[in-house]
Design goal:
The structure is a single chain. By secondary structure, the protein is of the alpha+beta class. The protein is 21% helix and 28% strand. The strands form four sheets. The chain has a seven-stranded mixed β-sheet. A five-stranded antiparallel β-sheet has the order 2-1-3-4-5. Strand 3 and strand 4 form a beta hairpin. The longest helix is centred in the C-terminal third of the chain and has 20 residues. The termini are far apart. 28% of the residues are buried. The model has no long low-confidence stretch (mean pLDDT 84).
Length: 276
């Protein structure tokens, strides 16, 4: 069994118990499922044993099942780009009625959605395997990527937790989308990052995931900040498209609104699949 030190991230196996037992007894260890384990000094087969089953219920929804390589590669690319020492910001294009869509330099107008702080206010990133978020009805979701302030116990609207869902062939399942809508109502920002199908891969990795008109990543510039631009995101229990609420939730039941959100995301995913 391979276990990991929660604090340092160092991995250990059963063979390490032979000469590191005393040390490992002082560490906080988890197995591959995120369950707490303790070292057992068995005479012939030393091993790690789970303290208790601390799973928060049943997983809601599932991960990408088709063309997993491109989906996972994009997830790794985003984490690498956004977790660097330069920090990051999330922006969206802003198309205000009666105003130009570009600034004086001819660049599209943008508005910030989330800003990564410095020092203790930096965000800590987690991939799907470790980004387990408990939701109602004793269940949990595992988003593609998630981040939150490393120095704060609770999230708040001024510094929300961030969830990134990579959309390649399909949008989140209905149960998952309901959970995401609920989380977006309690200081979670959920952004959707659309990527092309495998047959549409440019040779360079950054270009491969950055050509869609709906989203892209701009590496750290002279100001030292990486920019993640998105078009579709959930916040405060509602769907935003380019900074504008796309039909407010109170006009529908939660189930109907979730269906509306799903259909809207599906149209965007279809457009990307067609090369838009």
């Amino acid at each position: 069994m391979i276990v990991k030190d929660v604090i340092t991230g160092q991995e250990y196996s059963d063979t390490d118990l032979t000469n590191r037992l005393a040390y490992l007894r002082t560490r906080l260890l988890v197995d591959g499922d995120g369950q707490f384990v303790i070292p057992v000094a068995h005479a012939t087969t030393p091993h790690f044993r789970r303290v208790a089953d601390s799973n928060p219920g049943t997983r809601i929804g599932g991960g990408e099942t088709r063309d997993v390589d491109s989906h996972n590669d994009c997830r790794a690319y985003l984490k690498e780009a956004l977790s660097g020492p330069s920090g990051f910001r999330v922006v969206t294009y802003c198309f205000s009625p009666g105003q130009s869509a570009t600034d004086d330099a001819g660049q599209p107008n943008t508005q910030p959605v989330l800003l990564d702080g410095s020092g203790l206010n930096r965000y800590q990133w987690y991939e799907e395997a470790s980004a387990r978020i408990g939701v109602a009805d004793n269940g949990y979701i595992q988003p593609d990527l998630a981040a939150r302030y490393a120095s704060r116990f609770a999230v708040r609207p001024a510094g929300p937790a961030l969830i990134v869902e990579v959309v390649r062939t399909h949008t989140p399942e209905p149960a998952t989308l309901l959970a995401l809508l609920a989380l977006s109502s309690i200081a979670h920002l959920i952004v959707f990052y659309f990527i092309p199908t495998a047959r549409q891969k440019p040779s360079k990795r950054d270009a491969r995931y950055n050509w869609s008109k709906y989203n892209n990543v701009v590496p750290a510039d002279g100001n030292g900040t990486t920019t993640l631009r998105v078009s579709y995101y959930l916040f405060n229990g509602e769907l935003y498209v380019n900074g504008v609420v796309k039909e407010r939730y109170p006009s529908k039941t939660l189930e109907d609104y979730s269906k509306f959100v799903s259909e809207t995301l599906e149209r965007a995913a279809d457009a990307v699949a067609k090369g838009d």
